[in-house]
Amino acid sequence: MESIKAMIWGPDPAVQLRKCNQLIRKNTRELDRHIQQLRGLESKTKSLILTTSKSRSANSAAQTRIIARELVRIRRQSSRLITSKAQLQSVGMQVNEAFSVRKIEGSIRTSTGVMRDVNSLVRLPELTGTMRELSMELVKAGIIEEMVADSLPDDVEMEDDEVEEEVEKALREVMGGTVVAAPAAPVSPEKGIEEEEDQDTLDDMRERLEMLKS
User: Ranges of Basic and acidic residues compositional bias (predicted)?
Assistant: First the structure.
């Protein structure tokens, strides 16, 4: 019955709005889940920094800084998702406003603001599927135009000096002002073994972060 009415009179605005809001809430819950996971991972990483810094191994300083770099990556990811949640909430408000205006004026206006935010959110690995579903509903409603793939530039990686500055800041915070000095280039014959251990630690922390994106 509803499909027949939609064919004759067009989509029911109330149904469209309800579907959009359901998808927005679904995406918000997904972001909340990932943010909570990152907070847990951040807490574990801080503990690992403290544990590694107290180790008596020859390469503990190098390992501690490697883990601190991963802490910086985790915090950047968390910050990005928090910003994305704010964008999603903005989309929700603009969508509801657009449907309210439609009741008064009898037509809906395309929103460049919603288009920009949706274009950004649809590229999040955590939301790709559900955001595409939302974007299709917004296109049907006339709030945005057809999505353009890769319309936004990729995230720019931090420069090395920026990373090191963040690492220093993170170490001061976690270790109460005591910063682990960056180790000088090792000259011992065990250099290759130490570098391999450092890389194993780094790979382990990166794997944990990547698991949250999958």
Answer: 203-214
Give the pair of three-digit tokens for residue 179.
Answer: 């910063």
HSE at residue 62, side-chain half, CA atoms within 13 A, is 18
Please, what are the domains in the chain?
Answer: 2-152 (1.20.1260)
pLDDT single digits (tens) 121-131: 988 888 877 88
pTM of whole model > 0.85?
no
- Please list the alpha-helical segments (H only) found in the chain: 2-9, 13-53, 60-105, 112-121, 128-141, 160-174, 191-213
* C-beta of residue 102 within 8 angstroms of C-beta of residue 13: yes
Closest by CA position to 158, among listed 55, 63, 47, 77: 77
Which tens digits make up the pLDDT trace of 182-194?
A: 554 454 445 445 4
- For residue 94, give both structure tokens: 């603009």
Residue 204 has what pLDDT?
64
